[in-house]
Every structure is written in structure tokens, then in C-alpha cells.
């Protein structure tokens, strides 16, 4: 049998984690806090049905939906991005600054194709989004972890590692970070944009959760402080519309978007026009605002139930992040508890989570006491049942 490319081995460890995440979501008897899916109740099934039934006819947008499309995306969806998603964040964008992609994951893939050479360094948060690491490793980049605290990336450590490693890129999820649920402070957002400009490093700002805010004060994106075009802002429609639509977008300078266009044509030509039209009509018909309020209400309740369960059911010796939005909280148990070893006991009790070590690219053994818990895809009643199961497993191990 022909040998696989060497780069496949580079990303095997992170690929194994991703496989486990998807497989943990398939057992109907297990209450899984492992995945990152939004609530089933948050999916606009009926609205999408009505839109599709109306527009997918030969005399409306049916021909457009089933034909090839422009690699940048259909105009009215890009207009929705500039006017309804970017402008409220304080970001001024023209149509030529936006390109529609096949889900937020593809944004990172396209940017990696555009910039990364084998051996290049990418600075990431510790912990970080494991699927991003998988992509960077697929392009044979070396991921170096930067220190974080409750206010996000520690700027002094980022700058020190920029000087030491001369990275091509800094990857950051500044708002309701996956996996930690933390949010980067305003001062550090400004500082990250300035570092990108000063050292000519790409700041890849991944922002899939910021619309899902349940408490606290909105913060402007890192991109809003970018004066040189070194920050690339990427986002997804997965949490605010539909994960299955596989839609996202890139916002960057026209020069970068032109190059991403070329990479996109060599990758898959364009995102699904059918999905784009349905999503665009969703915005065109004024359905987004009420839908966003609804999904925030649903997930706020789940966040509150989860944090109440953690406070009441888990030992006082644990630490947990209280997220102002998004889908995750981060729990640190006493150092004596290994959450990787604990997972087998949890699965036997039909409850799942993701061990914390899987989200670190360095020094993983010192984070064996951590776990990521996702509350988004679990009904409030099941959150209580699942946390009772998990609490019993943790207390037994302690």
C-alpha cells in the first residue's frame, strides 16, 4: 500500500481527539458534555423550511441555488455580514473585504494555505481549540503555547515568544474561548493588534461565539484596533444559524481577500450556494434578531443550570470558569485527579466530557486535572442528571 504523506502523522494526535468528540455525541444513553453543538431547540427548522419552500422554485432563486456560484459568496449574504454582523461590532467593511467559506473551520484552513510553510511557528493559547491545532499541524507548522489567565493571553509572554520564535501567526479566540470559556480583556485586545502590526505577524482572530452573550459587557474585536491589516477576522454561522449549513466568513484587507479567493478556487470553488441563499434570506426577511434573542435565552438558562450544578454538586476544592456566553466552562480539579483516567469511570456512568490535556500543545501532563464541559447541547433537566453522575464519579475518585 502506498505510504501516507508525512504531514498526516503530524496531526494524528489532534485528529484522534476530534474523532472521540464526534463519537461521544452518538450514544443516545450517554449525557455528553463533550461536544460543542448548540441546542437542538435553537435550530430554526421551521423558518428554514418556509424559506426553502418559497425561494427554491424555478421562477425565484432555485436556478441560482443549484448552479455554480462566485468564490466570494453571494452578494446578499456578504451584505448581511457587513451590515448585520460586522457593523454592530464596530467593524467597517466593504463587500470586497468579505469572503464566504464552508464553515469556520475552512477559514483557518484557507489562511493556513495562504501563509504557512513547513516549519513555520504558530502561537496559540494554552489551552486552545484542538481542531485549529489539527489544521496547523496538517500544514506542518509548529504550534507554540502562550500563557493565559482569566483575562486571556498574557501579552508579555506573547511578545517574548514572538521575539524568540518569529512566528508567522498568532491564533486566538478572544470571546468565550473554546475550551476555557474565558474572554480576553479590552486592554489585551488592543495590545494583540499592536503586536501584529509591530512585528508583522498575522493575528488570526476566531470569533464564533461572541453573538451568544448572556451577561457582561460587549467588547470590540481585536480587528477593530488593527491599523495595518495584520489581523484577519474569521467567524461562523454555525452557532447563530445552523452548524449543518457549513457557512462562515473571512473579513480582511482587500489584498488578503483576493489571495484567499485564489486559494478558495483551488480548494472547493465556493461554499454551497443553496445554503448561502437560505441563510441570506434568513437575514433579508428580518428573522435574525428574534432568533438570536431566542438562542441566547435558551443557552443562558443552560449556562445558569450548569454553573448552579457545579457550585452545589462538585467539591469546594474545584475551580470553574463562569462564562458570560458561548457554550463551555472549564473545570480544574485537585492535582490528584487525572481526568483522562476518570473518563472511563464517567462513561460507565453514562456521562461524558473532554479531558483538559487534549487542549494543550505543550506540558499536557500538568493539565491532567482539567476538563472542558459543554452545556449547549444538553437540556436543563439532563444537565442536572449528568452533573449528578459526574459528581459521584469525581467524589469517588477523591
TrEMBL record:
One GO process term, biological-process aspect: alpha-amino acid metabolic process
Cofactor: pyridoxal 5'-phosphate
Protein name: Aminotransferase
UniProt cross-references to SUPFAM superfamilies, sorted A to Z: PLP-dependent transferases (SSF53383)
UniProtKB keywords: Aminotransferase, Pyridoxal phosphate, Transferase
Gene Ontology terms, MF aspect: pyridoxal phosphate binding; transaminase activity
Ranges for domain Aminotransferase class I/classII large: 64-389
InterPro entries the record matches: Aminotransferase_I/II_large, Class-I_PLP-dep_aminotransf, PyrdxlP-dep_Trfase, PyrdxlP-dep_Trfase_major, PyrdxlP-dep_Trfase_small
Record-stated family: Belongs to the class-I pyridoxal-phosphate-dependent aminotransferase family.
Subunit details: Homodimer.
Keyword Iron among UniProt keywords: no
Pfam families per record: Aminotran_1_2
Amino acid at each position: 500500500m502506498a505510504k501516507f504523506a508525512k504531514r498526516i502523522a503530524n496531526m494524528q494526535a489532534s485528529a484522534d481527539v476530534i474523532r472521540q468528540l464526534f463519537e461521544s455525541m452518538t450514544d443516545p444513553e450517554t449525557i455528553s458534555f463533550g461536544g460543542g453543538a448548540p441546542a437542538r431547540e435553537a435550530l430554526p427548522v421551521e423558518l428554514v423550511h418556509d424559506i426553502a419552500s418559497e425561494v427554491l422554485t424555478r421562477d425565484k432563486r432555485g436556478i441560482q441555488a443549484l448552479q455554480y456560484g462566485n468564490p466570494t459568496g453571494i452578494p446578499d449574504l456578504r451584505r448581511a455580514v457587513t451590515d448585520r454582523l460586522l457593523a454592530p461590532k464596530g467593524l467597517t467593511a466593504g463587500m470586497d473585504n468579505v469572503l464566504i467559506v464552508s464553515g469556520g473551520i475552512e477559514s483557518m484552513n484557507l489562511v493556513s494555505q495562504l501563509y504557512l510553510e513547513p516549519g513555520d511557528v504558530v502561537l496559540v493559547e494554552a489551552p486552545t481549540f484542538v481542531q485549529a491545532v489539527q489544521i496547523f499541524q496538517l500544514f506542518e507548522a509548529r504550534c507554540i503555547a502562550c500563557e493565559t489567565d482569566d483575562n486571556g493571553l498574557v501579552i508579555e509572554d506573547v511578545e517574548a515568544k514572538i521575539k524568540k520564535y518569529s512566528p508567522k501567526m498568532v491564533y486566538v479566540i478572544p470571546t468565550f474561548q473554546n475550551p476555557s470559556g474565558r474572554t480576553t480583556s479590552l486592554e489585551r485586545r488592543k495590545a494583540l493588534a499592536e503586536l501584529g502590526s509591530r512585528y508583522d505577524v498575522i493575528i488570526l482572530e476566531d470569533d464564533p461565539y461572541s453573538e451568544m452573550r448572556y451577561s457582561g459587557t460587549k467588547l470590540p474585536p481585536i480587528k477593530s484596533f488593527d491599523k495595518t491589516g495584520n489581523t484577519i477576522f474569521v467567524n461562523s454561522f454555525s452557532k447563530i444559524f445552523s452548524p449543518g449549513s457549513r457557512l462562515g466568513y473571512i473579513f480582511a484587507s482587500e489584498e488578503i481577500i483576493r489571495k484567499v479567493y485564489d486559494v478558495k478556487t483551488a480548494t472547493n470553488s465556493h461554499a454551497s450556494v443553496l445554503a448561502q441563499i437560505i441563510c441570506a434570506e434568513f437575514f433579508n426577511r428580518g428573522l435574525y434578531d428574534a432568533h438570536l434573542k431566542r438562542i441566547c435565552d435558551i443557552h443562558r438558562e443552560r449556562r445558569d443550570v450548569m454553573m448552579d450544578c457545579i457550585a452545589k454538586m462538585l467539591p469546594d476544592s474545584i475551580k470553574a470558569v463562569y462564562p458570560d456566553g458561548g457554550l463551555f466552562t472549564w473545570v480544574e480539579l485537585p492535582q490528584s485527579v487525572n481526568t483522562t483516567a476518570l473518563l472511563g469511570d464517567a462513561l460507565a456512568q453514562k456521562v461524558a466530557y473532554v479531558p483538559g490535556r487534549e487542549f494543550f500543545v505543550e506540558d499536557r501532563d500538568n493539565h491532567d486535572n482539567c476538563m472542558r464541559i459543554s452545556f449547549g447541547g444538553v437540556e436543563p433537566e439532563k444537565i442536572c442528571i449528568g452533573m449528578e453522575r459526574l459528581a459521584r464519579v469525581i467524589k469517588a475518585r477523591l
